[in-house]
Predict the structure.
Amino acid sequence: MFIEPFWILLILILYIIALTYIWICKSKFNKTEHMLHVAMHQKSEVLTFLNSFSKNLKSAEELEKAMRETAKYVADLIGAEAVCIFVIENDHLVVAGVSGQFPPLHKTGSEYVFTKPRFIMESLLNQKIPLNEGIVGEVARTGEGILIEDAENDENFINSPICVDSFLAVPMITEGKTSGVICAINNIRGHKKIEPFSPEQFNALKFMSPQVIFAHNIVKVYSDLSKQQRIEQELDFARKLQTSLIPESPPTLEQCDIYSFTKSAKEVSGDFYDFVDIDENRLLIVIGDACGKGIPACMLMAMTRTFIRANAERFTTLHDLFVSLNKDLYRDTDAERFVTVACCLLNKASGTIEYARAGHTELLLGRLDHPVRTIFPTGAACGLLPPEFSENYDIISFSFLDDMSLLLFSDGITEALNEQGEEFGLDALFEIFGNAVSSNKTPNEIVDTILREVNAFTRNTPQADDQTLVVIQGKKVAAKTVSNS
């Protein structure tokens, strides 16, 4: 049977189009899979670094080794033979921490070339490099990183007392200002005997630079102050850290109004809340309470917040979120560390709420002309139990109606004590919230009413625990409140 050339040509074109489509789909899948792998790897690096560094805060003596340990951590992470961390002091770069045998990088023309490791290290530690001189000064001045694949023939390393085959340097930038430079020499992960650093290793060093700044800031605080001042500065630092992690204001939505409040019992708090955009239609509203006090509690809070935000782009379900959060916190924290978390997943398109909690307090649901309800799905605190014993996180879904008001709170509200040692209690909060909803109060008025009643109950008793409140209210309630006023 004879087939006309037109049909043969058409079949070939369709075949080529099909192959092209399959190739594009495969490329997109591989790219997405790679991005997921990178994000998970980076999240793991941050959590591991935060946890390992927080363990070094137990005593002042251990802090003296902190920057050296930080440099070693960075060297191990990127696969470098040696790493040196320079910080800016009085318009000069000085060494803050070094791991391995790292050569002096600034030449004045008057120094002798020493070959013994002890002399090389002394020369490096005594250097003060002007910001406009040398390769390190150039990185600090321009704010741009440098990757030199063939450093052996580079003029900066000629006659170096230590052989430098490849070189990396990235600036440490915070709030738009350069505070130092991280340098690394010689790739030890290459398959060949001598192989330069890869772009991936360069990016890994850039990724860790904010964590190194964080570490150096803590060490600087402790090294400059007396023991009592260190305690005060630790609390102040932790408070500022926590404040930087708390959203300045709730998001503005068409479907509802949100008001949030938190107050620490001491200088620092283990409570936190957050608002995370999953996509254009879904908003994750988070409230949590990290156990402990001081910097360890803040670090635990930061780790929890980092994990939740890292999972925003690959969010599946609240159940999977809590399972993964518990797995990471149980693996990366001490046995006595855990965090309670509650999440409301608001779907703006469907007008629904999904609620789950991990050891946190109940959700209170109020409606106009309806009694208040408590919602309390099961779920253990994250980081408390091994993963195999903590996978039962129930999710409750319901339609978020225009006349609804939801209250998320921490146990610092219900467990507030008066002079007789009595707790404020859930029943009192239940009644106050119900009356506030029935009176058409706005979210901020509901929070103010609750806090006023709690303060009246505790009177002169010092606040014993952190207090956090988040109110989510339908627009119909707000509209009715405005018309009544």
